Amino acid sequence: MVHAIRIHQTGGPEVMKWEEVSVGEPGPGQVRLRQTAVGLNYIDVYVRTGLYKNPLPLIPGMEAAGVVEAVGPDVQDIKVGDRVGYCTGGTGGYAEARLYPADRLIHLPDGIDDQTGAAMLLQGLTAHYLLHRTFPVKPGQTILFHAAAGGVGLIACQWAKAMGATVIGTVGSDEKAELARANGCDHTIVYTRENFVERVKQITDGQGVPVVYDSIGKDTFYQSLDCLSRLGTMVSFGNASGPVGAVDIGILNTKGSLFLTRPSLGGYVATTKELRDSANDLFAAVLSNKVKIDVRQTFALKDAAQAHIALESRRTTGSTVLLP
């Protein structure tokens, strides 16, 4: 019998239960996956707590890698035995096996093992759209990336550095600062003891940066606006400290005719072509060593609650994988 983590009510990590589930056979356009590695992401916390609303009960998890066990009717480009990964088809990832739409699957190349595949897709594709599409970073620009030692941050900072940018990253400790510097950050700011607005202005000779990438939310939003240069872009793509809430858009005018966007990965990879083209760019960056994926923590899937506790207490760095 297949097991999965299920949530019957929203709340703390304790609401996640290890239960038997029925998977069934794939229908039209679906495959059945035997999952070998499951990615842990902060969006899983948002789902568990109810910040992101979903019908209950549910199986959390947005990202995993595995092997195709069965293929339903009308599936053209996926076959039994293929190694694949996914990160955009909704919840259901915290399971030993599951059904999944074939057109949202990504073939994993030979040079990418399953744990790396499960750790890199959601975070790596997020870094891809942020740096290449939301605000296309150009050589010589200086950027600010919050949570630089997190999963998205470590990938994005490496990639931005490879693109020729100067990277400023905020982190919560000296240990995380060292890790961020080893992964592309030219300047690190320990926000627990430093004023990051003042430090950014020092680093940029008072000019500020053309873009801030902010996944923290409530605690950093308004200070991040103060880090921007005239006509700068505020990219608010997460809520780790809580939602930003209502914003008086007049502030964008008074602080320098700023731009503000709240993007999501789903908006940038809505089609199969967009998804797979972006994934191919990511794989190329990893296989060429421009970006290294570092799986720094693993937990048994049945111990997902412990993984969530570590993630929310900011005890994790880089990527974390749950193993079925």
Write the layout of secondary structure elements.
Blueprint (H helix, E strand, L loop, with lengths): L1 E6 L8 E6 L8 E10 L2 H8 L14 E8 L11 E4 L10 E5 L4 E2 L6 H21 L7 E4 L5 H12 L3 E6 L2 H8 L5 E4 L5 H8 L5 E6 L6 H5 L2 E9 L13 H5 L4 E3 L3 H4 L3 H16 L7 E6 L3 H9 L6 E5 L1
Parallel strand pairs: 8-9, 8-11, 9-10, 11-12, 12-13, 14-15
Antiparallel strand pairs: 1-2, 3-4, 3-6, 3-15, 4-5, 5-7
Characterise this structure.
- Residues 11-322 form the Enoyl reductase (ER) domain.
- Its EC number is 1.6.5.5.
- One of its GO terms (molecular function) is zinc ion binding.
- InterPro entries: ADH-like_C (IPR013149), ADH-like_N (IPR013154), ER (IPR020843), GroES-like_sf (IPR011032), NAD(P)-bd_dom_sf (IPR036291), QOR-like (IPR047618), Quin_OxRdtase/zeta-crystal_CS (IPR002364).
- The chain is of the alpha/beta class and 324 residues long.
- The chain folds into 2 domains: 2-120 and 269-323, Medium-chain alcohol dehydrogenases, catalytic domain (Quinone Oxidoreductase, Chain A, domain 1, Alpha-Beta Complex); 139-262, Rossmann fold, CATH 3.40.50.720.
- 30% of the residues lie in helices and 26% in strands.
- The protein is built from 10 helices and 15 strands.
- The chain has helices at residues 42-49, 114-134, 151-162, 174-181, 196-203, 221-225, 250-254, 265-268, 272-287, 304-312, and strands at 2-7, 16-21, 30-39, 64-71, 83-86, 97-101, 106-107, 142-145, 166-171, 187-190, 209-214, 228-236, 259-261, 295-300, 319-323.
- Strands 3, 4, 5, 6, 7, 14 and 15 form a 7-stranded mixed sheet that branches. Strands 10-9-8-11-12-13 form a 6-stranded parallel sheet, with helices on both faces.
- Helix 2 packs across helix 3 and helix 2 crosses helix 9 (272-287).
- The longest helix is centred in the middle third of the chain and has 21 residues, at 114-134.
- It is globular and about 60 Å long.
- The protein starts with a strand and ends with a strand.
